[in-house]
Design brief:
Blueprint (H helix, E strand, L loop, with lengths): L3 H14 L4 E5 L2 H12 L3 E7 L6 E6 L13 E3 L8 E2 L13 E6 L2 E4 H7 L3 E7 L1
């Protein structure tokens, strides 16, 4: 598999479309950081890292609205891919839905959201948009 982040986003997207409560994803350090950001920003209910195998898995409990059963995540969009990397400097970090969504950025200071990257004045690779 060449693009593990796209696989991660696709598994979450497919689980939301099928109205699953929990999705299991093969683990990596970058995927763990993305999961932590999604939890901190309220897009997922909870997560658990399991290290039963050599690679390990991430179990993510998806968040749905109690009344109309809509997911908290409306769209997950991969921006940078292995074939075409997208980078943004500290001054031109993209805003997602006029600040309502988040862009997850891999910087030299770790994986963070677009707002955190602006406050720390660092740029990096724009991994994905979430809203």
């Amino acid at each position: 598999m060449t693009d593990t982040i796209a696989d991660y986003l696709t598994r979450v997207r497919n689980a939301i479309k099928a109205n699953h409560r929990i999705v299991e994803i093969p683990s990596s350090n970058l995927k763990k950081e993305i999961t932590k950001i999604l939890f901190e920003k309220g897009y997922i209910l909870s997560y658990k890292f399991e290290e039963l195998t050599a690679q390990g898995t991430i179990k993510i409990a998806l968040k749905y609205h109690p009344v109309n059963k809509q997911s908290a995540i409306k769209k997950l969009e991969r921006i940078s891919s292995p074939g075409l990397r997208k980078y943004a400097g500290s001054t031109n970090i993209p805003r997602v839905l006029n600040g309502l969504g988040i862009a997850i950025i891999s910087t030299s200071k770790g994986v963070m959201t677009d707002k955190e990257a602006k406050t720390q004045k660092v740029g990096g690779e724009v991994l994905c948009y979430v809203y």
